């Protein structure tokens, strides 16, 4: 199996990463690409509700809990004290696709766009310190860079950039 194309969205909390990721997935899927996503969380999270059967299975000590229905399935893997899996280990678990869009993992050496918003919790630019940032998407003017700068809401242009940078094959309209 060939490794899928990978492109990341990096930025501080409240910088617009999730909104941009959602818009890019919508746009790229509409263009005919099969897109998967990986979101890195810096905190504990749950995808099942307290009291649900899957929650009870995890609480009982199950290593992995898989929930399956006619429309989707999810596999929850409890680390139970083990180290967080590497980026490559997570990537290897995904089904084949055209593109994996990464939200977070700002330190991974992958091509990425930096999201910036005036309302971000931290406005320290990432680009000067990260040679893997290929462009900036912002809700305000950015003049202190030689990188391409896009309006954070210009999804079509940013999607064109992602297709170009990753070398995705153009889909027929």
Automatic annotation (TrEMBL):
Top-level taxon of the source organism: Bacteria
All copies of domain Molybdopterin-guanine dinucleotide biosynthesis protein B (MobB), residue ranges: 6-139
Cross-referenced Gene3D superfamilies: P-loop containing nucleotide triphosphate hydrolases (3.40.50.300)
GO molecular function terms noted in the UniProt entry: GTP binding
SUPFAM superfamilies xrefs: P-loop containing nucleoside triphosphate hydrolases
UniProt record, GO biological process: Mo-molybdopterin cofactor biosynthetic process
InterPro entries documented for this protein: MGD_biosynthesis_adapter, MobB_dom, P-loop_NTPase
Protein name (Swiss-Prot/TrEMBL): Molybdopterin-guanine dinucleotide biosynthesis protein B
Organism: Shinella kummerowiae
């Amino acid at each position: 199996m060939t490794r899928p194309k990978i492109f990341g969205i990096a930025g501080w909390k409240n910088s617009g990463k999730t909104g941009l990721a959602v818009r890019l997935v919508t746009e790229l899927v509409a263009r005919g690409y099969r897109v998967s996503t990986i979101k890195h969380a810096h905190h504990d999270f749950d995808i099942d509700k307290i009291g649900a059967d899957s929650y009870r299975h995890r609480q009982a000590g199950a290593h992995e809990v898989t929930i399956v229905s006619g429309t989707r399935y999810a596999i929850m893997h409890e680390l139970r004290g083990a180290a967080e899996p590497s980026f490559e280990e997570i990537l290897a678990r995904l089904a084949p696709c055209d593109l994996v869009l990464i939200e977070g993992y700002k330190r991974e050496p992958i091509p990425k766009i930096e999201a910036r918003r005036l309302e971000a919790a931290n406005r320290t630019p990432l680009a000067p310190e990260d040679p893997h940032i290929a462009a900036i998407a912002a809700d305000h003017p950015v003049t202190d860079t030689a990188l391409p700068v896009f309006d954070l809401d210009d999804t079509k242009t940013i999607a064109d950039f992602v297709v170009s940078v990753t070398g995705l094959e153009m889909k027929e309209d």
